Amino acid sequence: MTDDLLARHRAVLPSWMPLYYAEPIELVAGSGRRVTDARGRSYLDFFGGVLTNMIGYDIPEIREAVERQLRTGIVHSSTLYLIRQQVELAEKVARLSGIPDARVFFTNSGTEANEAALLASTNHRRSHQILAVRNSYHGRSYAAMGATGNRSWSASALNPLQVAWLHSGERLRGLLSRLDPADQVDAAVEDLREVLATQTAGDVACLIAEPIQGVGGFVHGPDGLFAAWKKELDAHGILLISDEVQTGWGRTGEHFWGYQAHGVTPDLLTFAKGIGNGFALAGVVGRAEIMESVPAISFSTFGGNPVSTAAGNAVLDYLLDHDLQANAARTGAILADGLRAAVGGLDCVAEVRGKGLMLGVEFVHPGGVEPDATLTARVFEACRAGGLLVGKGGLYGNVLRMGPPLTLTEDEAREGLAILVDAIRASAAAPEAAA
User: Fold this and answer.
1) How far is 355 from 254, CA to CA, in rounded Å?
2) Are residues 136 and 207 in contact, defined by beta-carbon separation less than 8 angstroms?
3) CA 63 to CA 311: how far, in whole Å?
4) Alpha-carbon torsion 309, 310, 311, 317, what sign?
5) Which entry of 74, 184, 236, 294 is 20 to 30 Å from 228 by CA?
């Protein structure tokens, strides 16, 4: 029973591993964009295992690719031996990355991918000084956590890096939020120059940044910001790492990678989540001269193993064959336009934002921009009651996050939209909301 499983969970797992919902659920089956819990309740999934089940559930092409590899009897060999599936996937990723003379290193998670990118860039520049962005999230390991600019996710004050922080693209709060988008880019560059002049000792290794901040609540700066940053970075020889763990593979609809909205090519990019569609698969791709800067043997025992890369090849082929980037743009527009029209005018909704199938709704107390995490929690629970799974995020826990599988149909988008609108309106009108 679910209740018994919850008690067992609490008895053996750490309390800092959160569970969603007042009554946590166990997912026992999935098909397409729908999952079923242990009580037999079906849900339309708009969070996809935190944007990870990118193609959906029980996809024949992916299942068959994994089963073919399993039938060989080789689940693991280590990268000390040639792995055909790994080489084939690396070739595809290198070609699609847009980075010239690219090399790819596979890991198990976005955290490890960002660690690998930091390893390469700090070795290349012979410096442990880096730049990062406020409100960011790059993972839970030592260095990745040190580059995370979100207090709720910074589980330790210890840090092997010397980090200087840039202002984010936050449009509701902070100094840059007071400016028009064009002026915001100029101000961000001025901020970068001042940080370099006052907080660093020269020879900074890199800037690591998300095109759209995931855990941060799907906040993003104006298009062109990365290009403006990179012009200044190039003047100092500083590398740009684009953290594409959540924005990659066409999720934003308008581009295959989030960085492409900025008219610039990063020196390295990291990827994870959706490429494995639930199998542990991630990595970093960068220019050969940077990737070859690692001065000693380094490899990942499980990164890029035969099973996960078999899945990754099937995922990427399916993604391209079915033009899921275009589908993300199409279905994402149904959701974004529908939300703005139906609830965008409510005084508790500060912003409906994002791109493609990466959307957030930020809730505030009426009359200002004070975050309302309590209302967000009510909407979150109401969505579940209505048969829709969504996520939460933002620095203050007041953002509803949606990252459905890129295979979402137009009918499913409209179905989910109706549940969202009802949940928001009902929660905003509840007596507790007015108290």
Assistant:
1) 8
2) no
3) 8
4) positive
5) 294
* Cβ neighbours for 377, distance < 8 A, ≥ 6 positions apart: 392, 397
Q: Quick one: the chain helix, strand, coil %, rounded to 5?
A: 45, 15, 40
For 301, phi then psi, to 5°, come to -55, -50
What is the average per-residue pLDDT within 51-80? Answer: 97
Of the pLDDT bands very low, low, confident and very high (cuts 50, 70, 90), residue 169 is confident
pLDDT at 262 over 70: yes
For the chain, the residue count is: 435
- 46-59 tens-digit pLDDT: 999 999 999 999 99
Q: What is the pLDDT of residues 12-37, one digit of tens each?
A: 999 999 999 999 999 999 999 999 99
- Taking the alpha carbons of 314, 315, 316, 318 in that order, is the dihedral positive or negative? positive
Residue with tokens 């991630």: 282
Task: Name the burial class of residue 76, with classes exposed (0-12), middle (13-18) and buried (19+) by CB atoms within 10 angstroms of its CB.
Answer: exposed
- Give CA separation, 180 vs 176, 221, 380, in Å: 9, 11, 32
Closest CA to 161 of 150, 147, 141: 147
Token match 């295979």: residue? 407
Least confident of 264-273, 291-300, 315-324, 356-365: 291-300
Find the distance separating the first CA and the last CA of the chain, reported in whole Å.
Answer: 37
